[in-house]
Write a sequence for this structure.
């Protein structure tokens, strides 16, 4: 299993870097859009859409929403419009605040979101803003590096949480949702993130972003990634499944790999905008 996980992770990392290096924005947006559509297919299964035509209809609506967002935010004309994309990012962050309340109230909150239509809507709120945030980041000079920095921050939070949780984890974070996670893991992940964010801020030297701002954005990104991870765990527990699919050997599905990024991406992108990042 470990060998499978390593091989799959290396292939995914190689494919990601190759796409960032060789593809311009529109094809790159389509590539990431394809990944998100695969995750949406997995989410449709989690939502309870059992028949193929239901999942295909969900994907069709999802793809139409992606195209609408792409045009609305100005990507079709080249440079995105901050006055349209910033409110979308802000609403996405508000959605994740609501999701945190649902996670905290689980399993009682399932009465609000446990139906297939509500879970379908939840999937769109999870995946669409994340895709839009990634496209927004990649639309700027240095965008690929800024995007990779977000991936590194989420990975640092995850790795730090894993090892500190194994070593010192005693107080459960959300026992009804993910019994293996602990508060000690969260704090360990945040400490790791602070160090990585400081290093990235010093190395990248993004316009208008101070070192303190880079650390604040990194910490916000790490905290958000925990919420995304917990939300997917909550939905899988509600459905009684371990993985979203088995498409990635040793890793489960695409949704299992990007759960933290779905919540971190809008928070990260909005944090950069609010901090004054205008390349």
């Amino acid at each position: 299993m470990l060998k499978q996980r390593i091989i799959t992770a290396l292939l995914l990392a190689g494919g990601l870097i190759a796409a960032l290096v060789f593809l311009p924005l529109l094809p790159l947006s389509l590539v990431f859009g394809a990944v998100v559509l695969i995750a949406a297919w997995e989410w449709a299964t989690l939502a309870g859409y059992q028949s193929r035509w239901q999942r295909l209809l969900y994907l069709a609506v999802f793809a139409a929403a992606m195209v609408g967002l792409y045009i609305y935010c100005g990507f079709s004309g080249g440079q995105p419009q901050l006055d349209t994309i910033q409110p979308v990012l802000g609403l996405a962050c508000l959605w994740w605040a609501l999701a945190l309340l649902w996670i905290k109230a689980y399993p009682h909150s399932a009465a609000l979101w446990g139906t297939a239509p509500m879970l379908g809507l939840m999937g769109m709120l999870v995946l669409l803003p994340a895709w839009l945030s990634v496209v927004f980041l990649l639309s700027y000079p240095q965008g690929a590096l800024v995007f990779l920095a977000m991936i590194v921050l989420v990975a640092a939070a995850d790795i730090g949480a894993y090892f500190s949780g194994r070593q010192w984890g005693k107080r459960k974070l959300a026992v009804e949702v993910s019994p293996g996670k602990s508060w000690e893991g969260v704090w360990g992940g945040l400490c790791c993130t602070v160090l990585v964010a400081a290093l990235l801020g010093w190395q990248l030297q993004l316009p208008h972003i101070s070192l303190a701002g880079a650390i604040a954005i990194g910490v916000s990104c790490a905290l958000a990634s925990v919420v995304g991870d917990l939300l997917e765990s909550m939905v899988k527990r509600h459905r009684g499944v371990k993985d979203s699919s088995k498409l990635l050997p040793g890793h489960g599905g695409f949704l299992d790999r990007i759960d933290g990024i779905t919540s971190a991406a809008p928070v990260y992108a909005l944090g950069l905008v609010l901090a004054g990042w205008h390349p």
Q: What stands out?
A: DSSP finds ten helices and two strands in the chain. Residues 2-274 form one domain. The beta strands are 172-174, 178-182. The chain has one domain: 2-274.
